[in-house]
Amino acid sequence: MSLLSKISPFEKRDLFIAWFVLGVAFTIALGGLRIGADMSSITWQKVLLTFVIALVTVGVSFVFHEMAHKFTAIKFGYWAEFRKSTSMLLISLAVAVITGFVFAAPGATMINTAGREMTKKESGVISVAGPLTNIVLVIPFVILMIVGIVLGGAEPLAGGYLINVFSLPGFLFYAGLTGFSVNAMLAFFNMIPAGPLDGKKILRWSPMIFIVVLVAALLLVFLSVQPNVIISLFV
Known about the structure:
Elements: H1 9-30, H2 44-75, E1 79-84, H3 86-99, E2 107-112, H4 120-150, E3 154-157, E4 160-163, H5 168-190, H6 198-205, H7 207-225, H8 228-234
Antiparallel strand pairs: 1-2, 3-4
Helix pairs in contact: 1-2, 1-3, 2-4, 2-5, 4-5, 4-6, 4-7, 5-7, 6-7
């Protein structure tokens, strides 16, 4: 049985809806479209470019996150499928508009244990698989950023940076930064130890692993909103 055959039509539908809405939310956040932001330098071309890049990076990052949960659960002998949460998707859009950050928790991978009692370890390992996947996915996007920087696609400025997203080096840097930001936010917000989020189950299983993954995710979020730290290393 192929991996794709294990994704039901209902799951594909929910993945697609969540993917699209998260793409819009990240476009708002990363495109500087939040309430109160200075939009004088924003053009529809840049917004469209941001949307396309956000869709691609969210498609990779979010889907890999949820599939990591799914196939880890299957490895333990359970059945699992992603289900979107309409309320959480609306919250993601609202938070992006208000704060410029994305509360990237659009739903959850639901696990059918078939009456078997899931252990704390199984629950923790299944849960941590998602954030760890995003942390690993940061690596290729950082490499893409660095290539763009080395080619002259980004210059540090006081309080920000200067790029031309319509040049090849600038595009590579911007695409890398977008993927970096998407994965960092997905990892961090899912590590919040509350409600149905991954962090609560990971903390219950192993406080040490929870702290390590949370600190790593928080550091990545900081670097994603302060890319000058990375730019200054290669300029």
